[in-house]
Amino acid sequence: MATKKLLAKLGKFLDADRASQRKEIQSIRKVLKKLKHKERDLREKLPKTPEGEERDDIAAKLEVIYAQRRKGVDRVKELRGVHKPGEGKDTAQDQTKDS
User: Fold this and answer.
1) pLDDT for 14-46, tens place per residue?
2) How far apart are the C-alpha atoms of 65 and 59, rounded to whole Å?
3) Can you give the three-state secondary structure of the chain, one letter per residue?
4) What pLDDT band is residue 97 in, cutting at 50, 70 and 90?
5) Distance CA 42, CA 34 (A)
């Protein structure tokens, strides 16, 4: 195959990958929005609920929702290519070892 054809195939492959990432990001964001509304409703309900088992259930649900939202946000960042400082790329400590 000619180089141009190979590059064209590679471009199509990468574009398809970006499109699938965009779809995944959109679906995750939709779920995150629903979780945020659910979390907000539970946070409003928590102070109105008397001490007891129901209040503990609400608090447990809030913890789970928070963890799910955190994972979703991290996944969106990962798909977008946003890295936290110190992750992925060489850190200053790694660079000093090479010297």
Assistant:
1) 788 888 889 999 999 999 999 999 999 999 999
2) 10
3) CCHHHHHHHHHHHHHHHHHHHHHHHHHHHHHHHHHHHHHHHHHHHHHHCCCCHHHHHHHHHHHHHHHHHHHHHHHHHHHHCCCCCCCCCCCHHHHHHHC
4) very low
5) 12
